[in-house]
Fold:
Amino acid sequence: MPFATEHDVRLRFQFTDAAAVPADLIEAAVEAAHERLMQRLLPGCAADPPAAVLLGETLLAGAEVLRSLAAREAAARANVRIGGQQVSAPGRFADLMLMADAATDAAWHVLADCLLPFPAQRVLAPTASVPVLGEAVR
Structure:
């Protein structure tokens, strides 16, 4: 069960237009944010979530909504040519993606005290040399 609700996301991000941002879009974003959060949340924070967990999940869900709106904007963008020059709406897609990234960064910052540490990742894994052009391996 997610910590955030549709109302929380609408209120935090001021998504007042229900036609532009339908309830099912927000609910799907809340579910996605909750799944993403539960992978990293400390067990104690999941059992009795502090206010930071609610805020963090709300921010993650809002970021998902913004990415969905950006994708819709990109898909609906029509290329109009006037006198050989392409005319497009100035930067709406980029602005939505920038806001989504900012909300995601803010969410992880707010959630920092309730998250499991990142597991160490191997950046480089050495492998045995294999001759490519038939030469002998030294």
Summary: The chain has a mean pLDDT of 86. The radius of gyration is 22 Å. The longest strand covers residues 80-82. The first helix runs from residue 6 to 13.
